[in-house]
Amino acid sequence: MKRILILNGSIQGSCGNSHRFLLKFVDEIKKLNTETHFNLLSCSEITENPKLSREQKLLQISELFENHDAFVFATGTYWDSWGSPMQAWLELMTPLEGTSAILGKPVSVLVTMHSVGGKEVLSRLQGVLSTMGFLVPPMAHMAYSLQNHLLASSVAKTCDFAEDFWNLSDLEIMAHNLLQALSQKARYRSWEVDRKDPQRIWF
Question: What is the residue extent of each domain of the chain?
Fold first, then answer.
């Protein structure tokens, strides 16, 4: 059984739009593969846990990545960037760059926004994840806005350009492509990575 870790890096966690959007995506994956196991987690559950030391947080994150086969990163858009829980998560997982915990494992990215900025967040996050060692499959990512949502519910059937906007039906394509990447086998290699403390002083 394949295991997919779904990370919600939005500020509102399970109470926000990103969480609802993720549930739609999970439904599409389930339709295509009923044997997939999901683990849905708000990044803040670990990054903002005052009872855990930095080392303990990294250990939990490492175990999550080791024990899952594919990943979904989701966030809202906040002043042209991803949520602070996602930023803290990325900083904590830096030591995993190029390790077997993530190397070559497929990832999808979902970004929500009210109107603008989400596509830039999507592209930047794809770049970060690819550089870390994740496999970024084609057309398994989306930036979905309130504008998209309103368009889909009102003029989508009469607008000649409607197909050029992301809509909820695209989630099925994204789910398909993520699962296709999950079923592929390749032996990726990592470049040399500085494994010392990335926060140590260099200046």
Answer: 3-183
Q: Could you tell me the CA-to-CA distances from 80 to 21, 33, 153 in Å, in that order?
A: 19, 34, 26
Q: What six digits make up the tokens of 46?
A: 């670990």
- Residue whose pair of structure tokens reads 């494992």 in the numeric block: 105
Q: Is the pTM of this model over 0.70?
A: yes
The partner residues of 111 in beta bridges, in order of sequence, read 75, 143
Mean pLDDT within 7-15: 91
How far apart CA 85 and CA 89 sit, in angstroms, is 6
Report the percent of the chain where pLDDT is more than 70.
94
* Cα separation, 69 vs 5, whole angstroms: 8
CATH class of segment(s) 3-183: alpha beta
Q: Would the pLDDT of 9 be above 90?
A: yes
Which pairs with CB-CB distance under 8 Å and at least 24 residues apart come from 153-158? none
Contacts (Cβ under 8 Å, ≥6 apart) of 187? 104
Q: How many CA atoms lie within 13 A of 97 on its CB side?
A: 18
Residue 17: helix, strand or coil by DSSP? helix
